[in-house]
Amino acid sequence: MLLLHGDAVATFLGFELVRLHAMLNDLPAALLIVAVAFEALHVFTKREGFRYASFWTLMAGTIGAAVAVLSGLQAEESIEHGTAIHELMERHETLAFITLGVFAVLAGWRLLRERKMGILERRVALIVALVGAGVLYTTGKLGGEMVFQHAAGISTDVMEHEIQNREAGHEHEGADAGVAPAAMPDSTVDAPAAEPDTVPDHVDPPGAPPHTH
Fold first, then answer.
1. What number of CA atoms fall less than 13 Å from residue 173's CA on the CB side?
2. What is the pTM of this model?
3. Between 20 and 30 A from 72 (CA), which of 23, 57, 65, 209?
4. Helices 119-148 + 17-45 axis angle, to 10
5. In a domain, 48, yes or no
6. Which of 74, 65, 82 lies closest to 159, judged by CA?
7. How many angstroms separate the CA atoms of 37 and 34, rounded?
8. So what's the pLDDT on residue 13?
9. Are the beta carbons of 62 and 32 closer than 8 angstroms?
10. How many domains does the chain contain in total?
């Protein structure tokens, strides 16, 4: 592990922590949402296959969420940011902890009670899972705002270079294809009159006497 602070970019096993955090976010979030969906299907259909799928995706998603939160805490210390990003980051961090807490409690609950849950207890667990999914959605939304609206994780030097690059503009391939072709000559314009035919109708052989028309 290599962890650098200050002007250097914090890295872990060769990955920038900001990029590592982004890589670790998507899978746990997807697993937790799928776990909630499977549990809802089990509650309404009573099919055991949905219960098994929900249980194992919940366990995997909760472990992944813990890893994502830890990477986010490390990434927070390494990125350049101002007041706007800082405020979003604090809210994002708080909601991430709440999300992890809700699903960790739910995972522990099901580990202890999975085979003993009655229908009422399982419905209560589903409500808790739905609350966790709602907090998870808000957490992800704030993370997206930090990246796509405030360029969190992108250094000032990189942003300045990108701004200059965009201001310079560029030409799309085949951009001149839309230029109107040069005007063609108007075929209706009268052509110059042809010169009269000066070739005689016939030629007399040599020595022939002249004749009159």
1. 0
2. 0.68
3. 57
4. 150
5. yes
6. 82
7. 5
8. 47
9. yes
10. 1
How far is Cα 23 from Cα 41, in angstroms, rounded to an integer?
29
**Residue 105 maps to a domain:** yes
C-alpha to C-alpha distance for 187 and 192, rounded to whole angstroms: 13
Query: 23 pairs with which residues across the strands?
Result: none
Q: Considering the chain, what is the average pLDDT of its residues? A: 79
Map tokens 């030097």 to a residue.
Answer: 157
Instruction: List, in sequence order, every beta strand (DSSP E) within 48-124.
Output: none
Q: Is 96 among the domain residues? A: yes
- For 76, the domain range is 17-157
Question: What CATH number corresponds to the domain at position 57?
Answer: 1.20.120
Domain contains 208: no
pLDDT digits (tens, 9 = 90+) for 115-145: 899 999 999 999 999 999 999 999 999 888 8
16 three-state secondary structure? strand
The CB density around residue 6, as the number of other CB atoms within 10 Å, is: 7
Is pLDDT at 175 greater than 70 in this prediction? no
Nearest residue to 155 via CA among 7, 15, 4: 7
